[in-house]
Amino acid sequence: MHGTVDGFSYGLVTPVVAFLMGCLGGALGLRCTVRSLAEPPRRRAGWLALGSTAIGSGIWSMHFIAMMGFDVRESTLAYDRLTMVASLGVAVVMTGVGIFIVGYRGPRGTALFTGGTVTGLGIASMHYLGMAGIRLNGRIDYNTLLVAASVLIAVVAATAALWAAGQVRGFAWSVGASLAMGLATAGMHYTGMAAVDVRLHDHGVAADPAGGSPASLLAPMLIGPLGFLLLAGAIVLFDPMRVMGRPRVRRPGRGPETLPSAVNPGGRIPHQRPRVRTPQR
User: Fold this and answer.
1) One Pfam family from the UniProt entry (predicted)?
2) Dihedrals φ, ψ of 37, to 5°?
3) What pLDDT digit, counting tens, does each position of 45-81 carry?
4) Of 175, 38, 158, which Cα lies nearest the Cα of 94?
5) Domain boundaries, given as residue ranges, for the chain
6) Is the pLDDT of residue 272 over 60?
């Protein structure tokens, strides 16, 4: 017997909020990735780790906010807590691998393709592992073609997001990268949900499945990732170096000077000839 699947039991509320959550996580994570490019390689790991966790938390939150609108009319749904936590770990780790590749190798060529592919596969793995944590009086089957399409959407959109974030050409590019990451998560999610086919067990009276209900389990578990996203947002907001490159300082009565660095020792302006002192008699 086929179950009646409803992915929009709360109307457009859950898809819209889920998409915005995916964009928020993507915006913070990609901003941290871009910020890391301004650092020397030995100091990039902190920003990349923060960015990976932000994107992983964002896509995980997006998935389970959307799942609160998922319902099978003939069966009660429950979720396995351990599987849910494992899906969050998979999202952070696999996204981190892709982010670190792009962060250290640059958002171009083979590094961009590899990083985008790993990030997209991380989004897809998180989704289907989270779906494996659903407990109901039946089983979930998938349409293979739609599953493949959902994975392709995640990979292409994640690659586009990493490429757009690496352009560093102003606010519009940042917004475009964030929307691309939100599209990667939401598009992958709802394409994957369209592949779902629920087959119910042939029982006269079915017992409630073991596990926590969506309302009692999902909402409390979202508090941690949402709190982390707020913390990451505060770190990005109060970052003293919001633009690429080293800041310039202006001294009274003098033009702008670059701060000393390993590339520009002594703070001299590039291409400026050093002064040569002549001996006085």
Assistant:
1) MHYT
2) -65, -15
3) 999 999 899 888 888 888 888 888 888 888 888 888 8
4) 158
5) 12-199+229-242
6) no
Q: What is the pLDDT of residues 225-260, one digit of tens each?
A: 778 888 888 887 777 555 443 444 344 444 444 434
**How far is it, in rounded angstroms, from Cα 161 to Cα 183?**
9
Whole-angstrom CA distances from 147 to 53, 121, 123, 180, 210 are 25, 12, 13, 20, 27
3-class SS string, 207-246: CCCCCECHHHHHHHHHHHHHHHHHHHHHHHHCCCCCCCCC
Residue count of the chain, please give it: 281
d(CA 129, CA 64): 12
- Strand partners of residue 95: none
Task: Pull the structure tokens for residue 159.
Answer: 């690659």
Distance CA 36, CA 29 (A): 11
Rounded Cα distance, 142 and 140, in Å: 7
Check if the beta carbon of residue 232 is closer than 8 Å to that of residue 50.
yes
CB burial class (10 A; 0-12, 13-18, 19+) of residue 279?
exposed
